[in-house]
Amino acid sequence: MTAHPFAGRSLTAIRDLNRTERLYLYDQTRRLKQALAAGDTVAEAFRIDDPDFGMYEIFLEDSTRTRESFKNAALFHRIKLSELNAASSSFNKKESYADTIANLVGYGNRVFVLRTALEGVCRHLAEQTDAYRRRHGIDHGVSFINAGDGRHEHPTQELLDEFTFLEDLNWSSDSIHLALVGDLYHGRTVHSKVHGLDLFSNVRVDLVAPSELAMPAGYVNAMTEQGFAVRQFDSISSYLAAGDTAPQWYFTRPQLERMGERVLRRQDELRGAITFTPDLIPQVGPETRFYHPLPRHREHPTVPRELDDTPLNAWERQSANGYLVRIALLAMVAGKLGDDYRGPVGPEAVPTPEYAMDVAPTAGEPKRYSEGVRPIHDGLVIDHICTGDEPEEIRRHMTTLQAVVGLNGRGGEWVSTGRDGTFKGILFRPGFPEPDEGQIATLAAVVPGATINVVRDGAVARKVRLLSPARISAIPALRCGNPQCITDPAHGEQILPSFVRIGGDRYACEYCSHDHGFKEIWR
Ligand code: CP
């Protein structure tokens, strides 16, 4: 029997559902919306209708829409709904997330909806729970749905946003031109768009935010890497002045609760740059639609209430769609919907291109390495380390290299100058054996661009050029630079972070998406 494509799946970030799977979800939601509007019995086919099917809501940050729409969706489904009272739970006795959830899985619960200030929690729990299920022979999947984690992602908001965009684009996913306006720095709903918008074949994104609230550079790079046409503006007025504005505008509120004192002091000025006042209405086309994940600030809304009764208002329908999309999502992860799905299953895999390649040792006379005046007879020479960097940085990274790969011992390491005046590191290890594949992979992770020379009988017998690996994981010295990432040792969950290459020598944490240069992922 083939496994159900969606049963027991988690949604920790928007990419956990591939493009085709999301289009399927939107088709189902559309069917449900029509059926409910018509009072049609088709809606009955969506119900899980199982009082033993347990769903837990765990909200460690405030929420109205997400928590209540999931709750209403659970009531629609006639399933068992529980809420963890985090304020009086054993979290206060420093119990880990992993232990807390293991207990609730042991009580037979199958779906967990979590909102947390820490980032990457759902991914961690999905991994931990797989191990728990194996230990206890639990044969059904357990789904973790990220209801917003810190500044990272809000994937179910992304689902209802995409559904509403499609609804307004006459269900065409050919192209979208979208303005993202507001607090793009802290806003997890806009961060989910970086990969969510790949739903559309052609994407134009206009980013409208003052520099203090600008989209982090890693996310902007990720959008351009995907072929999105990206423009940036520091205020609504400069955006309107530039012209060619988007027909769809997505606003986010300034997230005051996540801002430091310095930015808070300028909140009025910053809010002014991202507030659409009614006098601006004539400057946008009649087909323009505004979206907002809500809530709006009751005193200082960036989409003022005077706009509620205008055709710009798509945010109320967008919010109502949240209930429907979440009903469809729960039906899919419960295995109630999806038997007829025929597309690719699961997130698009991280490509695994080569991390190292053998190159021919220098043609003609075999190359000989000397450390100072003494020729090396047998051993290892790692050359071209951090070529082009400053000497101090190269020395620092060679120390990291030795610690991570266990290259401490006899020999020396130098910073030398190339013919073009740039610096490079070179490390000599006489007597060291040829590295195995695992060691070569680790070396590639720490010093991509370097070459490993295996010296035998005084000559280079094997030369390996190290490339940047597509994924770096399972090495104890790795560390995510985001203190809000669940992998940070301060949070006590004992997780080794892992990283995927997002272009050039930059790597994103797989838990929180924090963007790093390759040297920054090492402790
Ligand atoms: N859009 C959204 O996440 O709203 P809540 O914070 O009220 O859940």
What does this structure look like?
The protein has 523 residues and is α/β, with parallel strands linked by helices. The radius of gyration is 27 Å and the shape is globular. The protein folds into four domains: 14-154 and 322-333, 3-Layer(aba) Sandwich (Rossmann fold); 156-315, Aspartate/ornithine carbamoyltransferase (Rossmann fold, 3-Layer(aba) Sandwich); 356-469, 2-Layer Sandwich (Alpha-Beta Plaits), CATH 3.30.70; 472-521, SH3 type barrels (Roll). α2 (65-77) packs across α12 (315-333). Strands 10-17-16-13-15-14 form a six-stranded antiparallel β-sheet. The chain has helices spanning 19-38, 65-77, 97-106, 121-136, 155-168, 188-191, 193-196, 217-225, 236-242, 261-264, 267-273, 315-333, 391-405, 437-446, and strands at residues 50-59, 79-83, 109-116, 143-149, 175-181, 202-208, 229-233, 248-251, 289-291, 356-359, 370-371, 374-375, 379-385, 413-417, 423-430, 451-456, 459-466, 471-472, 499-503, 506-509, 515-517. Bound molecules: phosphoric acid mono(formamide)ester (CP). Phosphoric acid mono(formamide)ester binds at residues 63-66, 148, 154, 157, 293-295.
Mean pLDDT: 94
Question: Which percent range fits the helix content?
Answer: 25-40%
Number of strands: 21
Query: How would the global form be characterised?
Result: globular
Bound molecules: phosphoric acid mono(formamide)ester
What's the helix count? 14
Fraction of residues in β-strands: 15-25%
CATH architecture assignment of the largest domain: 3-Layer(aba) Sandwich
